[in-house]
């Protein structure tokens, strides 16, 4: 009996030994993802109870066979990138455990293999500022919560592998507009890698149906569009595409904008992690009951890709009933309570959100969610026309997890006067620009700047504590944001929303607020640089402190296109 047992055990060990390589390959995927052509499922919803949302997240990564790295946030039940659902006034208590692994020599050298002290860090996640490929943290994009440690500071807060779980603890403001927000890491120099790898998730402030009756009682779907490195980088374009000029590569090594709307994209796209990769763009599958109306809450969590969404039934673009941008209902300034802006395409810069009403296709008709090409400028990346998901009308379609309340107790009006009706205390001018390290060598590295007019252009220095801008809490300022570079940029500021007043010299006076906005590129042929004007709102006491404004193309942000603002009490 014992002899048999030992023999069995010995046999097992032999098999284990001879198959070590095999076992290494089939080890459990730490960031599992659906395959091409899969049904689009929704992220899990985590809801607050008795005014508190408790979440335990773990940051993980995994190396893929093609050399790319996936990053993910998993909750305590194994759900990836759960949607955090909160009400105004709720407390969020979120612990983040860092289980990132260094896969690259540089990461090992600079990261977890060294003690914190070796890198100038001090072992304190609140103050170390130690930012390496395996450090992580969270930014709550769009929320007006304080820029302090354990809330929404990303200047110093950095959690290292092996640190105790780090606790975020903040209150959703009572007057936070209801809508779609999101969370993602913000480690200077490494944000792009983590976000491209998939580290992002949605946060919903409930109550949009109280702001806009047009969505009351609708089923809602959270759709997160992310980008990632090409799965088939060496494939030629599909045969159905028109022949385009020879593909060029930009300074980041991504496919450059060729101006045709076709050709190799800079990055692949996925929708709720279902990839729709170049060159065939096999779409993911969204099922809906025939002609059902739903509220789609779409986040562009891409690192660098602009979206221009369109929904086609046959060849016909369908009306998309826009009700919110960047988490703010479109009637925020007091427009009618059933206001809907019907559009046939919706542009979404990286970081931005759109929420819109769609009607499912009739039985027997299939639809296609596409992104149309975006002209990112001669120095921009290629964002061609491509399919993302097919819409299948089916009576068996699974109902979305969440349905908006049909009750329409109106949301209280904002306490402060509408931003458009308040005079600014001053006007500032900031500008995007880029410079080759060696102007005579077009292959040399590019430095990215976001500069206050009059100051010397400098890449953002995380070690510097000198703010580029000092503002006063309680005031309102107008900022003119210029683009002196040959590519499109997406301006974003932490901690607050702003009002877009002028766009390319045209008054727009939007009835809502944004936190991310495009600034068109300079084509070299106009007397002035393209610019926009926004009205910044520093009235909320939660905006007091040091925080960031930057381009939301993450390779630009990581590359220095960022500035520091201090709002004094
Ligand atoms: Cu940019």
The share of residues in helices is under 10%
Basic shape: globular
Distance between the termini: 79 Å
Output the number of helix runs: 6
What is Rg? 24 Å
Describe the structure in your own words:
This protein is mainly β and 569 residues long. The chain contains six helices and 35 strands. Strands 10, 11, 12, 14, 17, 18, 19, 21 and 24 form a nine-stranded mixed β-sheet that branches. Strands 13, 15, 16, 20, 22 and 23 form a six-stranded mixed β-sheet that branches. Strands 26-25-28-33-30-31 form a six-stranded mixed β-sheet, with no helix packed on it. It starts with a helix and ends with a strand. Mean pLDDT is 91; it is low at 1-24 and 105-120. The site of copper (II) ion (CU) has 5 residues, from loops.
């Amino acid at each position: 009996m014992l002899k048999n047992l030992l023999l069995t055990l010995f046999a097992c060990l032999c098999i284990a030994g001879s198959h070590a390589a095999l076992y290494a390959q089939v080890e459990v995927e730490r960031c599992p993802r659906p395959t091409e052509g899969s049904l689009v499922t929704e992220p899990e919803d985590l809801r607050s109870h008795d005014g508190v949302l408790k979440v335990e997240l773990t940051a993980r990564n995994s190396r893929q066979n093609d050399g790319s790295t996936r990053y993910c946030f998993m909750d305590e039940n194994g759900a990836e990138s759960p949607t955090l659902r909160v009400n105004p006034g709720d407390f969020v208590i979120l612990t983040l455990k860092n289980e990132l692994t260094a896969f690259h020599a540089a990461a090992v050298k600079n990261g977890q293999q060294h003690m914190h002290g070796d890198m100038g860090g001090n072992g304190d996640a609140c103050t170390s500022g130690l930012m390496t490929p395996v450090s992580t943290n969270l930014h709550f994009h769009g929320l007006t919560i304080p820029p302090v440690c354990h809330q929404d500071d990303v200047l110093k807060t950095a959690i290292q592998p092996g640190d105790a779980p780090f606790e975020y603890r903040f209150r959703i403001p009572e007057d936070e507009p209801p809508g779609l927000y999101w969370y993602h890491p913000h480690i200077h120099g490494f944000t792009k890698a983590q976000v491209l790898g998939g580290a992002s998730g949605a946060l919903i402030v409930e109550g949009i149906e109280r702001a806009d009756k047009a969505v009351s009682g609708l089923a809602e779907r959270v759709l997160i569009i992310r980008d990632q490195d090409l799965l088939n980088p060496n494939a030629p374009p599909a045969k159905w595409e028109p022949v385009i000029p020879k593909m060029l590569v930009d300074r980041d090594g991504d496919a450059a904008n060729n101006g045709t709307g076709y050709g190799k994209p800079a990055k692949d796209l996925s929708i709720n992690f279902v990839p729709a990769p170049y060159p065939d763009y096999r779409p993911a599958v969204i099922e809906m009951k025939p002609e059902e109306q739903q509220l789609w809450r779409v986040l562009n969590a891409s690192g660098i890709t602009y979206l221009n969404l369109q929904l086609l039934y046959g060849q016909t673009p369908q009306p998309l009933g826009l009700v919110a941008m960047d988490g703010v209902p479109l009637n925020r300034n007091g427009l009618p309570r059933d206001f809907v802006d019907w559009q046939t395409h919706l542009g979404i810069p990286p970081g931005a959100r759109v929420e819109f009403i769609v009607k499912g296709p009739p039985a027997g008709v299939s639809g296609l969610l596409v992104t149309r090409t975006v002209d990112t400028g001669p120095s921009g990346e290629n964002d061609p026309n491509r399919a993302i998901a097919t819409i299948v009308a089916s009576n068996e379609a699974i109902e979305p997890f969440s349905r908006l309340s049909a009750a329409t107790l109106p949301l209280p009006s904002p306490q402060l006067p509408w931003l458009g009706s308040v005079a600014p205390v001053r006007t500032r001018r900031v500008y995007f620009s880029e410079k080759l390290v060696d102007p005579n060598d077009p292959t040399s590295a590019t430095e990215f700047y976001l500069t206050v007019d009059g100051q010397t252009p400098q890449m953002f220095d995380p070690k510097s504590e000198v703010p580029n801008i000092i503002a006063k809490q309680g005031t309102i300022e107008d900022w003119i944001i210029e683009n002196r570079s040959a590519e499109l940029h997406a301006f974003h500021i932490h901690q607050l929303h702003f009002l877009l007043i002028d766009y390319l010299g045209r008054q727009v006076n939007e009835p809502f607020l944004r936190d991310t906005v495009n600034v068109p590129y300079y084509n070299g042929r106009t007397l002035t640089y393209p610019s926009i004007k926004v009205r910044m709102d520093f009235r909320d006491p939660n905006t007091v402190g040091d925080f960031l404004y930057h381009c939301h193309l993450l390779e630009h942000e990581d590359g220095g296109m960022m500035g520091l603002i201090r709002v004094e009490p």
